[in-house]
Design a protein that fits this description.
Layout (H helix, E strand, L loop, with lengths): L12 H8 L13 H12 L2 E2 L11 H12 L12 H15 L9 E5 H13 L5 E6 L3 H9 L3 E10 L2 E4 L1 H7 L4 E7 L11 H13 L3 E5 L26 E6 H5 L6 E5 L2 H11 L10 H10 L1 H28 L2 E3 L6 E5 L8 H12 L1 E2 L1 E2 L9 H5 L3 E5 L4 H11 L5
Parallel strand pairs: 1-12, 3-4, 3-6, 6-7, 7-8
Antiparallel strand pairs: 2-9, 4-5, 8-9, 10-11, 11-14, 13-14
Bound molecules: pyridoxal-5'-phosphate.
The site of pyridoxal-5'-phosphate has 14 residues, from helix 5 and helix 9.
């Protein structure tokens, strides 16, 4: 059971964040993130970089043109604090069209600098010292850092590898709740495991959150990237009684392959969105003036919707290609249902340490991945269980993946 640790004060404060993010060595030196280390390794060795998860092909030209047109038309000064009305209306319409949620664009939708700022402002607004923020584990690395910035305590519930991909452990989740759990920071489709949480799994979360009177913050940046026809993205806000205690976060980066634009948003009850806006206005105030109208266009244009469908079909194909290649090379693979990541276990290849394996992989096979340890707390149950696991991305061009798969066969024994 983690004890509440508000961390050091004064000019060592940042070390608390570095430690939470796993970047502080025992002797006090600060390491670069494993993503930076692995990308540098790829650049140095010429290995194919399946570590960092960003697309190597940009999104629709029509959307890029909309941003260029907005610059030419003068959308170059501070936009309104909550985001331009056209984008807030497009977000509200998207939530209604896809999920039957009807946020009021004026009071229940806030535009942010990517999902990252939406999550940071939300945690900073709603949790502090003495409070616990509960996430799944493994978790997106920014969660640990921002929970530390807030001075709150990070608790976790493990996802477990099963023949049906990674799944929620309902018993472990129940055990992770305490009377100090203020926020459940959920993520579905889930990075790094690729799990798309089922309605049944979400009902377990909803029931526990309600019984412990915790709010739910749900990171749904991969909401459109569900890769199996028999799975669907279910926002937890659509479960009975949950809209009133849920803040839903998403962004344009993953859906439209414009990760550098950093247009995100959060929607939910007006009082909660107000709380987030209060903090957000002093983080960035506003951002992305010309990108906001472009994303409003992207959310509503039928041609763009067809492009996203094409992306999903292509990602499903690329997932299959990489999963089959990893399996043939000797890994145990947990087939992802969403996102653009796959987790693979290197233990059958004789490696019990994923970090060491990743450092050796460029020399062994000319490929770079990221150890799942980058997404766990050192020494946790999930950290132990996933010690030999590695994350690879398949959001790279097919010929890159074909070459990576061919190279990985060098690992077969
Ligand atoms: C990429 C990612 C984000 C960050 O989204 P931005 O819109 O780029 O800030 C947040 N959560 C998860 C799980 C992600 O993979």
């Amino acid at each position: 059971m983690p004890t509440p640790d508000p961390g050091p004060r004064g000019t060592d404060r940042w070390q608390h964040v570095a430690r939470a993010a796993g970047l502080l060595d025992a002797d006090g030196t600060v390491r670069p993130t494993i993503f930076a280390e692995m990308s540098a390794l790829a650049a140095r060795t010429g290995a194919l970089n399946l570590g960092q998860g960003f697309p190597d092909v940009d999104g629709p030209a029509s959307v890029a043109r909309a941003a260029a047109d907005a610059i030419a038309a003068g959308a170059n000064q501070y936009p309104p604090g909550p985001g331009i009305p056209a984008l807030r209306e497009a977000i509200a319409a998207h939530q209604e069209r896809r999920y039957g949620l009807c946020p009021d664009p004026d009071s229940e939708v806030l535009v942010t600098a990517g999902a990252t700022e939406a999550l940071a402002a939300t945690v900073l607004a709603l949790a502090g010292p003495g409070d616990e923020v509960l996430t799944l584990e493994p978790f997106y690395d920014a969660y640990a850092a921002v929970i530390a910035m807030a001075g709150a305590t990070h608790t976790t519930a493990p996802l477990r590898a099963t023949p049906d991909g990674f799944r929620l452990d309902a018993q472990a989740l129940a055990a992770a709740f305490t009377d100090r759990t203020r926020l459940v920071l959920l993520n579905t489709p889930h990075n790094p495991t690729g799990a798309v949480l089922t309605r049944e799994e979400l009902a377990v979360v909803a029931d526990l959150a309600t019984r412990h009177d915790a709010l739910v913050v749900t990171d749904e940046v991969y909401e459109h990237l569900v890769l199996d026809a028999d799975r669907a993205h279910v926002p937890i806000a659509t479960l009975p009684g949950m809209a009133e205690r849920t803040l839903t976060v998403s962004s344009a980066g993953k859906t439209f392959s414009f990760t550098g634009w950093k247009i995100g948003w959060v929607s939910g009850p007006a009082a909660l969105v107000d709380a987030v806006r209060t903090v957000k206005q002093f983080l960035t105030y506003v951002s992305g003036a010309p990108f906001q109208p472009a994303v409003a266009f992207a959310l509503q244009d039928e041609g763009v919707a067809a492009w996203v469908e094409g992306l999903v079909a292509s990602l499903a194909h690329r997932r299959d290609l990489l999963c089959e290649g990893l399996t043939a090379a000797g890994f145990t693979v947990a087939r992802p249902q969403g996102t653009y990541f796959v987790l693979a276990d290197a233990a059958p290849l004789g490696f019990d340490d994923g970090a060491r394996f990743c450092r050796e992989l460029p020399a062994l096979a000319g490929v770079v991945g990221v150890p799942v340890g980058a997404f766990t707390h050192t020494g946790s149950a999930a950290d132990d269980a996933l010690r030999s696991w590695v994350r690879f991305t398949f959001v790279k061009r097919e010929e890159v993946l074909v070459e990576a798969v061919a190279r990985l066969q060098a690992l077969r024994r």
